[in-house]
Amino acid sequence: MNRRAVFMAGGYMLLALVVSCTQQAHYRLPVKHPPIFELGERREFCTKCHGYRKEPVDFERYNHTPLFTDSHRMVAYQNQNICALCHEQSFCNDCHASRTELKPSEKNPTETFRRMQHRGDYLSRHRIDGRLDPSSCFRCHGNPRAAATCRPCHG
Amino acid sequence: MTRSWWMTAQLILFAAVLAVPAVCRAVDLGISSDTIVRVYERDDRNGRGRSLLPVYEFMRIDYGSVTTPGLSLHAYGWGRLDLRDSHEDGDAEGDLLYAYLEYIDPDRDHQVRIGRQYLFEGVMRESFDGLYARTELVPTVALSAFAGMPVGAGSAAGRSGDLIYGARIVQGQRGRYDAGISYKYVANDGSRSEELLGADLSLILPAGISLFGHSTLNLLTGGWGEHSYEARIPFASMEFRPFYQRYRYSDYLNDRSGASRPFRFQTALGDRVEIAGAEGFWYPAESVEFGGRYKYLTYDRRFGNAHMATALATVRRGIFSEAGLEFGRVQGDLAENRYYLGRGYLYGDFTPWFATGDVTYVRYDRAIYGENSALFVSAGLGRKMPDPALSLKLSVDYSNDPYFHKDYRGTLAVTYAFRR
């Protein structure tokens, strides 16, 4: 199983290089997006300026909808470079860090529009959410360092 | 944080400060500081009351070619000082979250980072000390690779024998598709702790419809840990996003050293969950949003089915002001897995002042520690001073819930941003 999977991955890489002989014009992302507002001051919709064109970037995909906080992970896994146009790693570290003591909503209590994870009384709610879908907990609290948050109660 | 890491970090910082101006056309300097003072009361593990007054400092430094190609330095960390009763023994008093040198070539085809950094790419979502490199081999193929020591595994039994490496290759056609393969290997204390192979896909179809997703194969167990796929279907001022996710806990959750007990328990249980549902959005005007999400969860063994639903509406005014209402319901098959949630929030911009409010009420179908509900109320006031770029924020929070009875907390934050 493992050997077959690695073999298939290697085959895909080879195929990717062959397919890429049909090159298209090279587009390069800028290093940074020109600043509009101080980052984090509002939720932005990329399509307001860029429209719904799918080239050179599928801008609609990065619209910060009211539920973007809950569902942005697939965007980040596939195109971290787009996120980095506007966000420094420190912005992501509000929630995604190997070890911070403050919940995101405690570090930024006045940024109510960011719909941060664990706001309010999450200690009670996490018993239920964690039972029903532990995968979302594991993504942040799965590594040994971040699990320090869980250990005082759970061991 | 170990002394050796501190010395390494200081050497990197010192070398960078010397090297950056020599190789940069334009040198930018950015310093961001968040000083946060909190006041609240807690009982320690022995039931002794503590009156806590911690001061936190979060500081970020960006130096070099920050907005243009070239060499740059980025560092971010936090520290805590207890002005009254101290935190529990063993609690960290600070951490260096990242400190890395980055080089982007003038054509922006190649990128290299060295130092402590975070990576969210393919199957990689971890902090590590090491090297990351990304290159566009040809215009339609990008290859990235990383190697170093995982930060997370270091708390299990020191950093000896810890190792992480991996790679991702992406092939795509702009405006049509991107397809990637990624691999990650993690060793903790000399033994193989994690080995994942992932595939991810972005596909743009006619009529503006998009399909995204990824799958993860656990090479240690030989099973698929995750399949997550979603479509985005725009229609006039609306958008519909159906999704499907499937997790097998024994292949997705890591039960090796350092994982906390709930994850080890779930792994041993060998359950599988399938999550199907959709998000939907409607934008009747530029300043009005309606959104909703519904999830239907089914399990192999432990539970029956579960439903999670949320609906929300937001109204914006001017550039920054926003108000929102949210209503949610979580309904497992057992009463202990059910609750209603209502939330209202406000961010009012009255330049240079701003005021905020947040109310969250949760009603549990089955009491937790004798409490059927939780109420959280937060009120905030702030002032922005553009020159210097300084913000003052004061927040007072009240919570009455199963864990904290009539709990008051206060937070004063001073944010300072320097750019040159």
UniProtKB/TrEMBL annotation, chain A:
Species classification: Bacteria, Pseudomonadati, Thermodesulfobacteriota, Desulfuromonadia, Geobacterales
Protein name, UniProt field: Cytochrome C
UniProt source species: Geobacter soli
UniProt keywords, alphabetically: Signal
Superkingdom, taxonomy of origin: Bacteria
InterPro entries in UniProt: Multihaem_cyt_sf (IPR036280)
Signal peptide segment: 1-25
Automatic annotation (TrEMBL), chain B:
Originating species: Geobacter anodireducens
Protein name: Outer membrane channel
